[in-house]
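Predict the 3D structure for this chain.
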Amino acid sequence: MAAHSPVGIGIVGAGNISDEYLTNLRKFPDICLVIVGDLDIARAEAQARKYGVGEWGTTQDVLTHSDVDIVVNLTIPAAHAEISSAAVVAGKHVWSEKPIAIDRSSARTLLDEAAAAGLRVGVAPDTVLGPGVQTARRAIVRGDIGTPLSAQTVMQSAGPDAWHPSPEFLFAQGAGPLFDMGPYYITALVSLFGSVVRVSAVGSTGRAVRTIKTGDRAGTEFAVGVPTHVSALAQFDNGGVSQSIFSFDSPLTRTGVVEITGTEGTLILPDPNYFAGDVKITRAPSSDGEAEWETVKPVGIEAGRGLGVLDMARAIRGQQPHIATGDLGYHVLDTLMSIDESVASGETVHVGSRVDAILLVPEGRDPYEATL
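Done. Predicted structure below.
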């Protein structure tokens, strides 16, 4: 029997989100965490030591490390395209946090560079690989709600300035509720309905200045550079339609609402920001008008952020397609930018890109099994 040979992973960006990736990736036998890099080397060292990673250093140390096969890009959105392109130039595959970039041009350049070099790009969110969306997709394929017709999603809260110690980047270009949280909902909808064809949207900025409410910088004010409330309509290739709210302006937190209505019933998904949760269906109201719900038997194993990295690592070794591709990330970015452009212009915007049908995760796949 051949020796087990895990795929080497280098992390770039040792901020808040790195905790989840480092926690989960070290649990997958097919992954080997090699090095953590950051602009702040002390922060990279702290995260590496905390999670038992043997090396740390600069971004360049990660990109030039001979044992790194995939660079996991956890930098801020404005740096995603630059770091990912640098990784491709260095001969590494890339997994990027969402969005793939903050403009179409740099995202397209990245994908073209990777294709020319024979390298892969994967893009968060990988929540669509979890049991929640996978169970819902199979229910729709089986015809459990008939032909899917429409969707409704809601993500509203008071905003990350309430809990993040350095939230400015979440209110800058490439973020806001649309670009920060929108990828979870739009990726789930594309997974269920196919490519987005056109969008119409309106938006507003509730407050031009925000105040940090937690951490050492509590009380610090900063300017808001993006709409903090967006209401969007979308039409999909298959004729389905959706309406979505993305807001950082609501004192009433209401997140994770994803409802898919078909000709024979309505299906409720768990929060697309997470990997698992109940998938429920109602087909007809009871005699008193109340919905009668049934829970769909779940499919898959919950594994958390990093599942897409694992899927890509296995796909590279097996010379098979991976699921959360750069093309999917580009289409989601294209859709989000089209929504943003509709907010600015007041007009319907046609989405130029298309993406192939998203692959299903094979039933029985175990992220905690050593397969390589």
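The mean pLDDT is 96.
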